[in-house]
Amino acid sequence: MTNAKIRINTINDVKNFVSIVSKCDYDVDIVSGRYAIDAKSIMGIFSLDLSKELELHVHSDDCKDFLDEIKDFIVE
Predict the structure, then answer these.
(1) Labelling 68: which of 1, 24, 49, 60 has CA 20 to 30 A away?
(2) CB-based contact 47:37 (threshold 8 Å)
(3) Domain residue limits at 36
């Protein structure tokens, strides 16, 4: 599993993020506090507090291409 911190700020960011994640063959979760949602669910993402950093859990160790695609959302 690979983890990263992300920030999704706008409605368009959510749409773009879900579009990228939906292409993945493996599971990707977003964790915020005690809530964990499927990152492929646009409604699930909108249910989170997007003003905070979110934790991304990618259930694959071979996801470098995916991380490159979402680099604009990753918080260093």
Answers:
(1) 49
(2) yes
(3) 2-69
Residue 76 placed within a domain: no
Domain count, the chain: 1
- Torsion angle of C-alpha atoms 58, 16, 45, 67, degrees rounded to 10: 20
pLDDT of the residue at 76: 79
Integer Cα distance of 28 and 3 in angstroms: 10
Q: Looking at residue 28, which CATH number applies to its domain?
A: 3.30.1340.10
